[in-house]
Each structure stands twice: as structure tokens, then as C-alpha cells.
Amino acid sequence: IVTKRLLEQSAEAEQSFYQMEEQRLQAEDHRREAEHARELHMLQVLGQMFSSIATRNPVATATANTAMPPALNTTESTMQPGVPMSTSGRMRHVLERSFSLGTAARRGMDDILPLVKNIVPPLTSKKHKGQDGRIGIIGGCQEYTGAPYFAAISALKVGADLSHVFCTKAAATVIKSYSPELIVHPVLDSPNAVEEMEKWLPRLHCLVVGPGLGRDDKLLKNAKEVIEKSKARDIPIVIDADGLWLVAQQPSVIQGYQKGILTPNYMEFTRLYEAMHHEPLDSSDHQRSAMELSVAMGNLTVVLKGEEDLITDGNKVILCRQEGSGRRCGGQGDLLSGSLGVLAHWAYTSSADMTKSVNPSVVAAFGACSLTRQCNRQAFHKHGRATTTTDMIQEISSAFKKLFES
Ligand SMILES: NC(=O)C1=CN([C@@H]2O[C@H](COP(=O)(O)OP(=O)(O)OC[C@H]3O[C@@H](n4cnc5c(N)ncnc54)[C@H](O)[C@@H]3O)[C@@H](O)[C@H]2O)[C@@H](O)CC1
Ligand SMILES: Nc1ncnc2c1ncn2[C@@H]1O[C@H](COP(=O)(O)OP(=O)(O)OP(=O)(O)O)[C@@H](O)[C@H]1O
């Protein structure tokens, strides 16, 4: 009886710890939003000062116009979420982003990139560990230990404060040995896996499901249940790799969840499309197919990776054509999904002013695609054909600065 009472007391103490922790996190989020708003105000004041100086100087005016982009066209579709449709007869918005060094690059600065810059949180001495993001990766099994590592370390290097990996017991020691910076939980195949993972959810800002998850039914079932619990907490959920295999089998796991982001490569996309539409994919029009998939999934954001990355929430399509290289090695998609986890958290905790009311998932996805491709480009410049994902991860710092902090 004494042991039982002790156990009950410890469960109550744990419960109240999580409640307090959650309240504290919410307060932090509010503080950060207010900080962002103050910064925006200062920037606006500076902008006004700059343009009043510029009006008196025509040369400066021209510069100011290229530096201060016009608002994006965010025309909304009249389609209802969750209703499959044909895109014919519907106005499609295609915003193109080109980073080649010609005049097109300047034009590209007018669209999503400034919004990505806006969501990057300032580094100040007022913050404590955890405020810039605690990201959870669900994946890592006997066969695949690299993928969850790549995703988790990328999240840290992009700027998350803490990166957790929830993997199988066999994968855990291996992943820990790659990096002391990751927090690794060997729980994904444990008998009480869902409870083990659920207790961490109040501390996580975003979940990335799939890198190195494998296709074992038990692991997929556990991942599915954690996705359900995370939806109830309203956190962004990025689904990649084998997580997309799960979605193709059971779309309802994420269908209609507005903070869900799918990041398929072409094969994964084909599987998802055919599962949703019960007909072969028409490979002649990727933009249309991606929009159709997004709408069928309830206007989730879909990132179709390839020669150009295609990002859509079913309302419009944005292309990321950041120059990469011809080198394709395993793990590049994991860099993307880990980075996207952090950026999605930042985008969803930024005010609507910061994202100019553009879908935060789309802003985050554009940031992650641009960053991955820029890392690929820089790594290829140094290592050529020998470029690996590890080389790309080493470029995250300078690629991030170049794209989002200059
Ligand atoms: N080091 C690691 O641990 C790595 C593990 N990975 C994991 O491996 C698991 C399986 O991932 P896969 O990507 O192999 O998935 P699949 O087993 O579905 O294989 C997809 C296949 O499609 C091919 N493909 C990709 N893009 C294509 C295109 N545009 N046209 C034609 N074929 C195309 C690929 O070569 C691959 O053979 C996932 O859990 C993933 O996370 C990968 O992330 C790679 C790195
Ligand atoms: N042909 C291409 N040209 C330039 N960049 C590309 C090309 N194909 C893919 N990429 C870029 O590589 C990154 C990863 O895409 P990829 O298709 O390799 O994902 P993946 O197959 O899911 O990766 P992983 O090996 O991690 O599972 C994306 O940022 C994408 O933009």
C-alpha cells in the first residue's frame, strides 16, 4: 500500500510538473511574440525614416524600392479544405524564386525570403535554453541510424536549442555515439512506447516523423499514435520518409491538420497521390498534381522535392529554385526535414505581421528548401562528387547567414 501511494504521489507530482512547465512555455511564447512585435515596430520606424530621406534623393529611392518588397499576393482559394478537386478552371498562383546571380535574383527577393528572415528569432542575452525550439524526431531503427541523426543535428545547427530523437533500442546507442549534442530516447519499440513519448510532448515545439523510421508495423503504429497525441497539442508536424509511407496507408492520420507538412520526394509523392486519388499520377504537370494532393489532404502543405522544389498549400504554388548541385546523396532530405521542424516552430510563433499572413508552413518550407539547396551548393563547391550529407551539414551555419541574416 505504501508503495502504491508513493507511486500515485510521484505520478501526481509529475503531472503537476508538466502542467507548470506548459504554462511556463506559453508565457515564454507570449514574451517572444511581444519581442518580435517591438522589433517590427522599430524596423517600420527605421523604414519610414529611410524612405523620407530617400524621397529627397531619387537615387536612394530606387535602392529603397528594391530593398523593401511589396506585399505578397495572398489571394485565397474558395475551395473547401478536405474536398478533392480538379485544378482546371481555377486561378493558380505560381510564385517563382530564383537565386541565380542575374536580375531574376533581385526580383526573387520580393517574395518569400524576407518573410523567412522575419521569423528568425533574434539572439539576445535575455533568453534561456529551450526558447528557440525543442524539436522531436521520431525515427531510427536497426537499419537506419543516419537519417534521424541528420535531421536532429540539422535542427540544432539551424538554431533549435534542444533536439530529441525517439528511436528503437538498437538504434539509440549508435545515434548517441554520433553526437553528444542529441538527446536520444530508446523507446520507439518499447512495450509502452506511446506513453514514453507522450510524456515528452509538452516540452516539444515541433515533431518530425519519419527519418529512418522503417516500415515495421509496430513502429508505424506507435508513430501514428504519437502523431494523434501531438495533433491534440496543436504543434507543427513535419512528415517525411517512412512517415509518408504511413500516411499513404492511413491518410486520416494527418489529413486536415493545418500544421501538418509533408515533404515527399518524387517516389513518395507518387505513392501518396495514387493512394488519395486511386488513379495513376499524371507526371506531365507536377504543380497541378501537388495542389490536388494538398487539397485532398485538407490543404496540408506539401513540399515536392526535386530539380525545383514545389511548395503548395492547395491555394498557390511556390517554386524554390535555389541553385544546388548535381550531387544527390542519401540524407539530404533529412537535413531538409530537420531544418523545417525548427523553421515551422519559428513561423508558427511569429505574428501574422511577420509572415504577412502567408501560411506559416509555406514560409517555413521555403526557408528549409532554400537552405538545403544552398548547403548542397556550398558543399559541392568544396568536395565535388565526394560531397555527403555530413559535408552539407557543415555548411548550415554559413548558408543560413548568407540567406537569412545578410
Ligand atoms: N543514412 C541513413 O540512415 C539514411 C536513411 N534513409 C532512410 O531510408 C528509408 C527509406 O528511404 P528511401 O528514400 O530509400 O525510400 P524508398 O524505399 O521509398 O525508396 C525510394 C526510391 O526511389 C528512388 N527515387 C528517389 N527519387 C526519385 C525520382 N525522382 N525518380 C525516380 N526514383 C527516385 C530512390 O533512389 C529510392 O530507391 C527512410 O527511412 C529514410 O529516412 C534516407 O534518409 C537516406 C539516408
Ligand atoms: N535534381 C535536383 N536538383 C537540385 N536539387 C535537388 C534535386 N533533387 C533533389 N534536390 C534537393 O535535395 C534535397 C533532398 O531531396 P531528395 O529528393 O534527395 O530527398 P529524399 O530522397 O527524401 O532524401 P533522403 O535521402 O534524405 O531520404 C531537397 O532540398 C531538394 O531540393
TrEMBL record:
GO process terms (BP): metabolite repair; nicotinamide nucleotide metabolic process
Record field: catalytic activity: (6S)-NADHX + ATP = ADP + phosphate + NADH + H(+); (6S)-NADPHX + ATP = ADP + phosphate + NADPH + H(+)
Enzyme Commission number(s): 4.2.1.93
Residues reported to bind ATP: 305-309, 324-333
Matches recorded under PROSITE patterns: YJEF_C_3 (PS51383)
Binding site for (6S)-NADPHX: 212, 265-271, 334
Residues covered by the YjeF C-terminal domain: 112-403
Keyword annotations of the record: ATP-binding, Lyase, NAD, NADP, Nucleotide-binding, Phosphoprotein
CDD domains: YXKO-related
Cofactor: Mg(2+)
GO molecular function: ATP binding; ATP-dependent NAD(P)H-hydrate dehydratase activity
SUPFAM superfamilies per record: Ribokinase-like (SSF53613)
Manganese keyword on record: no
InterPro entries in alphabetical order: CARKD, Ribokinase-like
Annotated function: Catalyzes the dehydration of the S-form of NAD(P)HX at the expense of ATP, which is converted to ADP. Together with NAD(P)HX epimerase, which catalyzes the epimerization of the S- and R-forms, the enzyme allows the repair of both epimers of NAD(P)HX, a damaged form of NAD(P)H that is a result of enzymatic or heat-dependent hydration.
Family that this chain belongs to: Belongs to the NnrD/CARKD family.
Protein's name in the database: ATP-dependent (S)-NAD(P)H-hydrate dehydratase
